[in-house]
TrEMBL record:
One Pfam family this sequence matches: SBP_bac_5
Keyword Disulfide bond in record: no
Any one biological process term the GO annotation gives: dipeptide transport
Protein name as it appears in the record: ABC transporter substrate-binding protein
Domain Solute-binding protein family: 78-453
MF GO annotations: peptide transmembrane transporter activity
Family: Belongs to the bacterial solute-binding protein 5 family.
GO cellular component: ATP-binding cassette (ABC) transporter complex; outer membrane-bounded periplasmic space
Length: 556
């Protein structure tokens, strides 16, 4: 049985464990709670196991902390669970000095007996690195982000210097190592909790009933319905401003809009009808320029897309400008390659195929398909910042390709099923995207298109190019910015020649909220965070209209 099945079945079997406390099932009818209408269910409650943005949004910054983080408008690396760190001159030894006042969550299913220490850091990363680790194979032994960046090939070992000092020893210098430790995937788990679960032969529960050090802890989860978090009262920083956070899982964008307008959610993901929201004096629409890319990918291991000429022909036939105007409603920038213009490594001279249906038809003839062929496009069932409506985009591409004699069948599945079947390579082509986890350019190139990512199913094109991989490796071995930029420029040129995917747009991420909700939630990379969110009293009659409905939903 795969992890996704275990996840759903175990949640159903143990839901009484989470709701059996005497704290009551009804939510507070005050400003102390926020309801967030989210677009989908998480695949897991451990972001180490998935690169899905929906999963990161629901878990990473709500439940966990990492050793270091990016902060400020300039995205400077800053302390988190590690109060400081030191890198040797050769870049091969990085020592982290941990805080000594960090508490793990206390829940109905776990009561910690100690504070965070070095054992937790070793447990969290050795689970990923060591195939003999007791938890490595738990939940399917897939750690897609870390495997895509070849984490195990980079880290020689991790040493415990003392209870609050940990040293990573690398096999070579890597200019993106610290950036990768600041991602949403580099969360710290509880070694003590893991040991208890191991003794009970219930190791998989570590990824289903999460224990972290973050600002919120899990109270209740109903698959496809809601997630309820309570505030972590012993949080090592200032406590979160709200006491309860509810994710009302609403995959349909029209449903989220209806709930937002009816005050059934305080904040909504990926809103539609922007003009309608703007008309409301009690709502506000906000956006942030994300480090992302929406793309149309090809399964390069399946005919006819194992032929580069066919991939080029299909790409030439797609009117990207029409996609940007219709699907993104103009709220996105044309993607010349996977790297956004805002990245320091972007090269404006990167060659691009462009839009040329006549040439596309000619290339199909050269490739041996003068009469065209039939293909499928897999379209995401959820809205993401890099693609707010994949089904609509697929229909537009379908119309474009019909003009060159190619017949398209549009396929879609429930989100977790969609991702699982993509990773298994069942598709011919697909609409997906990537939101950066940190601002280093390697985070675009390696997780999406490297050979290592293709072996793990995270590179859904299954394209593997040794020259491309060597350029990425060369870029990571140097700290010279000009040299790195040169390597990445060559990598972008290879992508646009080989065309494993067609980069379409770099978009803004939109969010709608009531005017009574304060604080930053969105980030230009990584998942969302409700740590700084709060509600101010404006109109109690309006504010509390739907809270009982959500409470009933949680207790049914």
């Amino acid at each position: 049985m795969n992890f996704k099945s275990i996840f759903s079945l175990t949640i159903a079997a143990f839901v009484s464990l989470l709701t059996g406390c005497n704290e009551g099932n009804k939510l507070s009818l005050s400003e102390r709670s926020i309801i967030y209408c989210s677009e989908g269910s998480p695949e897991t409650f451990n972001p180490q196991l998935s690169t899905s943005g929906t999963t990161s949004d629901a878990t990473a910054k709500q439940l966990y902390n990492s050793l270091i983080v990016y902060k400020g408008k300039n995205n400077i690396l800053a302390p988190s669970l590690a109060k400081s760190w030191h890198v040797t001159r050769d870049g091969k030894k990085i020592t982290f000095y941990l805080r000594q006042d960090v508490s793990f969550h206390q829940t109905s299913y776990f009561t910690p007996t100690r504070l965070l220490n070095a054992d937790d850091v070793l447990f969290s990363f050795n689970r990923i690195l060591d195939k003999e680790h007791a938890f490595h194979h738990v939940s399917g032994n897939q750690y897609p982000f870390f495997q895509s960046v070849k984490f195990s090939e980079l880290v020689d070992k991790i040493e415990k210097i003392n209870d609050f000092t940990v040293r990573f020893i690398l096999k070579r210098n890597d200019s993106s190592f610290l950036a990768n430790l600041a991602t949403d995937f580099a969360v710290i788990l509880s070694e003590e909790y893991g040991q208890i679960l191991q003794d009970k032969n219930s190791g998989h529960e570590i990824d289903i009933f999460p224990i972290g050090t973050g600002p919120f802890k899990l109270k209740d989860y109903r698959v496809g319905s809601l997630i309820r978090f309570y505030r972590h009262e012993a949080y090592w920083q200032e406590k979160a401003k709200i006491e309860q956070l509810v994710y009302d899982i609403s995959p349909r964008e029209t449903s989220r809009l209806t709930k937002l307008l009816a005050k059934e959610c305080d904040v909504s993901s990926y809103p539609i009808a922007h003009a309608k929201i703007a008309e409301r004096s009690d709502l506000k629409l906000e956006s942030i320029t994300s480090l992302n890319v929406g793309y149309f990918g090809f399964n390069t291991q399946k005919e006819p897309f194992n032929n580069k000429i066919v991939r080029q022909a299909i790409s030439l036939a797609i009117n990207k400008q029409a996609l940007i105007e219709t699907v993104y409603q103009g709220q996105a920038a044309w993607a010349k390659s996977i790297l956004p213009k805002t990245s320091w490594a972007y090269d404006k001279n990167t060659p691009e195929l462009g839009y040329d249906p006549v040439r596309a038809k000619s290339l199909l003839e050269v490739a041996g398909y003068p009469q065209g062929f039939t293909m499928d496009i897999w379209a995401m069932p959820v809205q993401r910042p890099y693609n707010p409506n994949a089904v609509t985009m697929a229909k537009l591409i379908q119309a474009d390709l019909k003009k060159i004699g190619v017949t398209v069948k549009i396929v879609s599945y429930e989100w977790s099923t969609f991702l699982r079947r993509l990773s298994q390579g069942e598709h011919q082509s697909f609409l997906l995207g990537w939101t950066a986890d940190h601002p280093d350019p390697d985070n675009f190139f390696t997780p999406i298109l490297s050979c290592s990512a293709s072996k793990l199913g995270n590179n859904r094109t299954f394209w593997c190019n040794k020259e491309y991989d060597q350029l990425l490796e060369n870029a990571l071995k140097t700290t010279n910015m000009n040299k790195r930029k040169s390597y990445y420029a060559k990598a972008m040129a290879i992508i646009n020649e080989e065309m494993p995917l067609l980069a379409i747009a770099h978009s803004k991420r939109f969010q709608a909220r009531g005017i009574d909700v304060e604080g930053d939630i969105l980030s230009n990379f990584g998942g969302i965070s409700f740590y700084n969110a709060a509600k101010k009293a404006i109109n109690n009659e309006v504010k509390n209209v739907v809270q009982p409905e959500i409470a009933d939903k949680a207790s049914n």
